[in-house]
Amino acid sequence: MVMASAITLNGYSAIASDSPKGKDAEKKQNKSTEKKKEETKTNVVYIVLDDSGYSDLGSFGSEIKTPNMDWIAENGLRYNNAHVTPLCSPTRAALLTGRNTHEVGVGTVTNFELGPDFPHKRGAIKPEAGTIAEVLGENNYNTYAVGKWHLAPTEETSPAGPYHNWPIEKGFDQYYGFLEDSSDQYKPDLTIDNTQIPSPTDDSYHFSEAIVENANRYITNQASVFPDKPFFVYMAFGAQHSPHQVPEEYIDQYKGVYDKGWDHIRQERFERQKELGIIPKDAEFAPRNNGVKAWDELSELEKKNYIRLQETYAGFLTHTDEQVGKLLDNLRRTNQLDHTMIVLLSDNGGSGGGQANGSVNHSINYNALGETLEEVDGLYEEMGSQRAGTEYPAGWGQVSNTPFSQYKNSAFAGGMNTPLIVYNRQIIKDPGSIRSQYVYVSDITPTVYDIAGITPPKEIDGVKQMAVSGQSFKESLTNPKAEGKETQYYEVTGNRAIYHDGWKAFTSHKKGDSFDNDQWFLYNVKDDFTEQNNLADQYPKKLKELQKLWWKEAEKYQALPLTDTFLEGFLSVPEGSIRADKHLVYYRGMDRLTDSAVPPLVNRSYEINIPIKRADASEDGVLLAHGGLDSGYTFYIQNNKLVYEYRIGERTQASIVSNMDVPVGESVISLKYDKTGKHQAIGTLYINDTKVGDTKIENTLPLKLSFEGIDVGKDTKYPVSPAYADKDDFEFKGELVKVEYILGDDAELTVPRAN
């Protein structure tokens, strides 16, 4: 006879059976329920590489060792006709919202807030365009982001926010990463959730390793406590964006590999791509980009440095791949891999920003000044280290983009055709295969919604949502012959493109020219995969048809008005923004002010005042530091003298050592920076209104003073001056309450040009 008793648990009644059969049946039912939940659960992981070209992965033809990303390709699908906006922030905005970049407000990088005349380039995702994190969060997912964000107006990345465009306010439950466009890999400006934390001091720290460690921690926590609940992880590496920084043992793995030069390596990748089936057998080899020398014409000194720069890039990517492997291992270990959809892509093509010689100074590189071969060679032994975060020359950038022409930030295929790998064991039945459907980055998130059976909400937090304009390509996961996207428009920094039904028309806009004078190119990309045969003159009617379609799509998705504002956008300070005030005060104890939130000092006069109090002559240290090894200025007291230094690597070095001792007691330290010409000034140093020295400062940076922010009373990250490099943060021992900036009226700020 089976005896059953009623059990009350937390107010709910249940029946427990004493029968072994009853208990077995109950266990079976529980296991069945758990299995059913597990089988229907779809975790989602987005892995985004930065500035990695079409051919950089082994599975897309590279000699660079990427076994873990190749494993995802071998067990998933490679899309060889996938496209992004050829610039990082717009691609990320399209990826995370499933919509076109302009309609969500991110038509260019979020460093530039171009004001109300350009509503499509305001530096932030509109609230009407809910992110995948917000949507999945409303559908019982936990959501995690690690790595690069670059989706908030960068002047809002200060330690005090505002936070409404940070990851936590855009739907993520937890975040570990950096908020701006690029970062040092050894000492990044770190943010956890809504809190900025000091840069690491551990010599073994590397950002790529840290973001995967944190992602694995988030995943393991959830798999342990809520195993049936799905998760979404957005993993955005700082790699492969400059500065290229990686331990030397990874660089040394590639000794000798690149001695044959970029022409030979690019040809090898091209042939390997044909063998892999990544590109058509009849694809034509793109000629060398303008401005790139033939390898055989280079000097031995050029070859030596260019080889090491590429070895550094390759080692950086292999190191990144190793971290992806750690993610895969943890997904296996926690029994999550088979229930996880992985999407891996790059945000745009490889960069040509290193220009002819490559770069070892991030500030000079970003200001587009170009570095001499002698400057690069001077840090040959330091490449990949904290001292010399590098970027490869443009010649290697085209190798990254094999088989295409040009680089990121162009409408040519080299800027927008990137690798796309999709893994989903539950759906994909022909792993290792290649798909050739036309896919745009905004189509990825709608595909996830389609697979998960999720309909995006009409409102999020009371805000009516715009339609999701991306197109699901779920059918192509199981059907190699599924239809791809028919139409997609593009616009970035004035360059325009339109794809429609196998044809592509685009412009290569010359900065400053009227958009009416743009030259248009026309390609039948169905038959001309590498865009080598311009048919604009042969098919003028087709070109006009596509031009008309571009204007229609641009108006529909809010890509107008046009502007070619780009790097000079660093000088744009919209009225009412945080930095528009001409009197700014920062108090001691403030966390390091991020570089985009600092006062706009470039090419203008200003005054800095620092009241201090010293109890005795031994109280020395840094009063104010803005910048680091690459560039910046600093005020410090050493050997009882006041010192001001302005540095741009080894290129510009100006300093003042006071001609009197800094008095004990109260005093006011002042600098008057008087602009005397374009990117020229005289700096005059005062103690209590007494002039104590001056210096000429020439060839100042034209766009952005430094990629390291402001410290008050210390220098916490990389030291601006080598004079105190061995003194940790060289914190000032005396009293210092605040630093005051008074900005002049002679700034040459950018007003974006519309057409």
UniProtKB/TrEMBL annotation:
The keyword Hydrolase applies. The keyword Calcium applies. Pfam families: Sulfatase. GO terms for molecular function: hydrolase activity; metal ion binding. It comes from the Bacteria. InterPro entries: Alkaline_phosphatase_core_sf, Sulfatase, Sulfatase_CS, Sulfatase_N. Residues 14-39 are annotated as: Disordered. It comes from Niallia endozanthoxylica. This is Arylsulfatase.
